[in-house]
Structure formats: C-alpha cells, structure tokens
C-alpha cells in the first residue's frame, strides 16, 4: 500500500518550487527535472502536477506566462515570485528538520 | 478569476498546456525508439485522460456555484452508479420512510391544518349549553336561548340553528325509497357558514315562515346518484317522508358540514337541507335540541365575542337556571371537528417522524462508512488542492441526490400508501374528502428530503473535511476517526427506537385491555337492520308499533333465526336520549334534587331485546308481549349501575322511577351496556317498552344460529314482504359494529407497530455495523490475544462490551423519552399508565435482545480469527 506517489504529493509543492528556483520552466520541464534531479527515483504524477501548479499560482507563489519552447512550440512557463522564494526557504527548512529527525530516529535503532 | 467570461479561455489554456505535455512526452518516448502511435498512446496513458485533469484543475480553483453544483451532481451520480447496492438500499429506505411520512402528513394536513372550506372559517364557532350540574358539559341549545343570542349579541354576524336527523326520500314513480341523512336548518345557515349551493339558491327570509311552502337544498351526491345530475331538478318537487318539498338548490361536491351531535359521534353529511320553521321562541325552554353555529363579525375580535357570550351566559343562568352554573360553551368549529382524531393523528405524525429520524441516523452511519472507504480518494483530492468546503459540499451533494431520489420514489409510493391508509381509516374520519397529496404535502416532503439529505451527510462531510491529510496518508488502514460520531448516531437510534417500541407496547396493552372490556352484550351471531318507519305511510303511535311488530314477526319466521327484537339504541350506537331520572322511594335520597336526580341514557326497545342482544338480566325480568299494550306498558328495566346507586342494600324491583316527571315501575335489572364505545362506560341506563315511546327509527336485532350475514338477503326480503316501500338504512352484523368501533385504535396500533418493527430492524443493523467494524479493525489485536491463549468468552466480551453499554445508554435515554411522550399520548392509552412497568421492561428486553444478537454475531466471528492469518493480514 505504501505508495511513493502519495508520499510525493505531500511534498509536491516543495519539489515544484525547488525546480523553479533555477529559472522558468513549463510543466513538462518541471516533471522531467524532478525525475532527473532525483536520479529517476521520484516521478511526479502528471495528474497531480497541474492542479498543484494552478494552486501555487493561485496562492501567488508562482507566476505563469505563455511563451515559445526551445522546440519552437507555444507553451506555458512558470517561474517563482518573490513570495514563492520565501515560501521555498521556509518549506525547505521545515523539510530538513523533518528529514533530520527521521534520520536521527533511524540511526538510533 | 471568478467571473464568467474567463472560464472558456481558462479551460482552453489548460487543455493546450496539457496537450503540450503529452506531445512532449510522446516525442521523448519516440526518441527512445517507440513507434509514433505507441509513443502517443503511452504518453496519454501515463497522463490519464486530459479531460479528467482539466476538470480537477478547475475544481481546485473553485468557480461559480452553479457550475460547481452541476458538476457535484454529475460527480455524485457517477459515484453512486459505481455502487448500485449502496444507492439502492439508501434510496429505497428513504423512499419507504418518505412515503409513510407523506401519506400520514397528507391526512394530518387535510384534517388538522388546512382551513375549512368556508368564508373566513376562523370566525366560526359552535355553541353548546354547558349543564355541568347534571353531568352534561355540552348539551344542545334551546330555542328561546337562540332567540336571545340573536337579539342580545350584536358582535355576532349570525346564529344558525341546526337539527340533524334522517328522512325517507321517495314516492316518485318507480324509484325505491331511500333513507337519507337530513338537516333542518334556520334560513340563515348558508350565510352564517359562508358556503352554499352552486346551482339554484340557498334559503331566503320567508322560507322559514310558518306555513310557507317547504323548500330544500340537496347535496351533490344525491343530485348525481338519485337525480342523474339533471339540473332541471331545481324547482321540482321531491317527497320527503311523503310530504312535497321543492328543491331550490344543489350544493357543490366540496360542500361538507357534518353535523356535530352533543355526544361526540359525528353524524354523516346530510343529503338534504330543509328550512326549519321559525318558531324558535315557541319551543319549550327545557328542550335542548339545537346545534348552534355562530359567526363572529369581521370587525370584532373572537376574544371580545367570547367575553360577551360569557356575560349573556351569566344573565341567562340567573334568569332561567336559578344560578346552577349554566354557561354557553363556545368551541371553534375547526377545533371541534378534529377533536376526536387529533391525539391519534399527532401520535402517528410523531411516530412517523421518529422513524424518519432513525432512518436518517442509520443512513448517516452508512454515509460515514462510505466516506471512510473513500478516504483515500478524498485525501488525494485534498492533496491536489480541493478545499475542505469543496469536499464537504461534494459529500453533501451526494447525500442530497440520494434523499431527493428517495423523495421522488417516496412521493409516488405515498400516493399508493395514502390510498391504503384511507381504506383502513375509520369511517368517522372528518374531512376525508379533502385528503390528498397537494402542494403543501409536496413542499413539506421536499423540505423533509432536504433535511434528511443534509442530516445524513453532515457527519461524514464535517469529519472528512476536517481530517488531517498527512495522518490519513501515513496510516495503512482506513482510520478509526469518527467512532464517536458513529456511536452517537447509533445511540440516538436506540433511544428513538425505544420510544417507538414503548409506544407500540403501550398501545398494544391498551388495545388488549379495550377489547377485553366486558361490553355487557354478546355481539356474536347478531344481524342488525336499521329502519325508519315512514311518516307518510304510518301515523305516529300505534301504526308505528304495529308495523315493527309485523317486521319482527316476519323475521322470526326465517329459518336459522333464534330471536328478534328492536331497540332505538343498540350497543355502541350512542342512540339513546338523555333524561333526568329519580327514584322517589330510594333510601339514598337526601331531598336535594341535585343529588337525587341523575341524567341517564333512556331508550325504548321491544320485548325480548335483552335476550336477543345477549344482555344479562341480573334481577327480575324483561319486557314481554304484554308490554306491547300501552295500557300496561308503564314499566322500566334499569341497569345495575342505577340499581346499585339507588338501592345499594335492597331490591329495586317493583320500585317506582320517574323519567322527566313520568312514573314507571321497575320490573327488571340488567347489566350495564357500553353505549358509546368500549372505552367509555357512558351514563347509567334505563329501558322502557317501545309502546311507551313508539319511535320511528329503530334497529332490529336478529340473533341467528348460523352466520348472521348469510341471512341479510332474506331479512331484507322479509321486511319488504311486509312493506315493499320500506327503506333500509343499514344492514350488518354486530360483530362488524364492534370491529369498527376499534378501527381507529387498530389503525394507530398497526402503523406505530410497523414503524417500531422497521426501527428495530434499523437499530439492529446499526449495532451490528458498529460491532462488525470494530472487529474488523481489531482483527490483529484479537488474533494476538487468542494466540496468547486468551479465554474466548473474555474476547467476546471485549468486543460486545462497548455495544452493550451503548444499548444500555440508549435504553436509559429512551425511557426518559418515553416518559415525555407517554404523557403527551395519554389520551390514546386505556387501562395502562404511560410508565407501565411491565410494558417498559418487556420493551427494554426486546431492545436489549436485538442489541445482544446484533453484536454477538460479529463478536463470535472475532473468536474464530485464525491468529496466523490475523498476524499476517497487513
């Protein structure tokens, strides 16, 4: 039952914000980058990705504009807003704290 | 982004974006070596349907409520179609509940709540003479009193006098004579009532003048059934009791005014109204014979009118009744009409509403379970951004879709249920013709559906919306959150069921007590034939007596007949007159008239009646053939109530008794007979020979050796062999009279019993469900305990303990509820107190039994858990 995708969805916001820190990307680009950065371990379920993007956009953490992709096609590009940057810093800190705590527990046994 | 114009753009953008995603994915797959088609197919597959996500994306952002509603309804329908079992159970349960509710409410609505079909009905009241000192709180009014009311109370628009009876209609060529109910009314009757004929006219001033040509208004029923709906009947003459009466008007089908007798049994709706000759002032002041309908003027408050009435009462009490406490008793017409059925209808409304509440709680539990099964799906929706309120609204939409589906089917079923209900309801049900499923019933049903839908969805909606996403995602099995809510819902069901069950028990106890009452007569093997000897054929006095003797002789000659006799007031007929009687030689007399005179039921009967009706003779003898002779007939039979009261230690036989001043000699003492109903002991009784008061309207009782009804046809023929023109009002068995007298009680008991049985089933399912799911959740723990050698009994108790405590709590709550309800329903109970310990203990045991069985079944399953399986199960 332990579903990797589910676990990911909880931290999806963090991953999206993190990939956008390096610059603007379209949705497909985001999902590819997450896969690449995690050495193919983390796969974003596309069905979760777009709703998450709209939600983040709604909260004002990311901005979207239509542009032309490197392949020469019309695509929607997302980038971090200033608020998004702050939120990323916060979430990262709390994630680290959480991960550290889990690690500490694991070492303890 | 909430405004309309942007929506299509936004959707198109999302679609474009996702199409782009799929194309990119496909291209990459193609680059890795897949053929183009396959690459596209797989890209689409991993995406999982562009449309679905645009939809969920939109949901995430929220939108305008109408779009949301449509989408939620669609979504609910889709979800419900995936679980047809759940949907069918819920919709059908609700349909049954709502059908019961709608049909009973239709009756209550028409009978209790709807305005009467007269002009400004809230200003109509009936007036009675309150003669408490003789034990008659509601007596008919006298003629002179009506005259004074009219003269001295200008705040009333009018006072109409009504005298109800029946008459023989006939004499036209070749038409069988017919006994029909008739009301003789003062000329202002239709004006005061505020309703009248649809063809022709009502009564006018002059119609009631002494010596004026007699005119009549006929009912729609008579108009269509007897006169073929031919309007030319207006202006023609018909014969009433042989005398010509000109028809001046025909009433509409909706017209209904059941005359109220002072004795609580409502008479049938009259088929003919005739104008009462206006000689009210000449009627004797001692003759209480008129039912009075009054209308308060529209510019006067009803309260002020009542006060003026009380004033006049005081004056009349001084002038006419030498201050014995006379008063006019005003009762609003609407209130009076429904007085007899109100407690029963309220009890039924309460019972059906209780059942609906139980259903609602039961379905709320089902919805809760369903929501927890869908927890994962819902959590994912929340994770991708659906707000709490969106999810809650979605759950509520689903339960509302279910409840409205139930309401739709329920209303259709309700039409049918109403028909069954009316077929079973007692004949005396007032305003029966007005009962139907109208828009008020529909509106209330819709309201009920709304409340039920929200009621059953509220708990799961709140819980799911509140639940913490992370904790649900981390947990492996469906969470146990909500156990508290669920227990509370089951507890509510238990308490409400207890109330319904206790109500059924008390009603059943009352029913048994009522049917076990010794009514003082033997109803079996008795056929009764109700007749009125026509005024046209038989002059008053001896001719009437003679024709009855001939009818009795003709009937006696039939094979299978044991005995025949006639009475003006057979048991349960409420047909007796009331007279003040006293025994001049009684040792209990004090000389104070108020103490010595008693108001008793007085009725004439023919020789052999007591034997025929199976009324036991305690002492002395009953009338014999010699008492058909008016010269020797000055005798009376009294009941044992009178005998005990006036001659507690000596014999009443041979003693004189005065009836309204007339003196008779007591020749027999008979058992007291129930004259009004099994419940009501009624007044003391005194019987006189038919020869003394040769009434035209009598009921002939025929005791048979075989089935009495088999004799009905021959009885009819025997009577017509004496007089072919004799109208027969009614023919039937005494057993049926007895059965009909229980009709209302039986109907209420049957319905409440059915509701209680349904409640018991629901509550059993509720307890079963709560135990079963606790067993399911604790499989591993129980397995371990058994593996470690725990005693099976203790394991069972650890499972059954909680539901048993729940049932016990439900019983206590239910008892409290029963106490409250029992006090309200006191009027329906007979011979049992609202807190009858035997009933309550029996009912508690039944509920406890259901609770124990419902929890024991799943608990036993727990002990059969194979420890190895349990340990491996996750």
Protein model, in words:
The complex is a heterodimer of chains A (109) and B (874). In chain A, 61% of the residues lie in helices and 15% in strands. Chain A is of the alpha+beta class and 109 residues long. Chain A is globular. In chain A, 34% of the residues are buried. The N terminus of chain A is likely disordered. The N terminus of chain B is likely disordered. Chain B is elongated and about 125 Å long. In chain B, helix 1 packs across helix 3, helix 11 packs parallel to helix 14 and helix 13 runs antiparallel to helix 14. Chain B is α+β, with helices and mostly antiparallel strands and 874 residues long. In chain B, the strands form 3 sheets. In chain B, strands 1, 2, 3, 4, 5, 6, 7, 8, 9, 10 and 11 form an 11-stranded mixed sheet that branches. A 6-stranded mixed beta barrel of chain B has the order 14-15-20-17-19-18. Classes of the chains: A alpha+beta (109), B alpha+beta (874). The interface between A and B is medium-sized, with 27 and 28 residues.
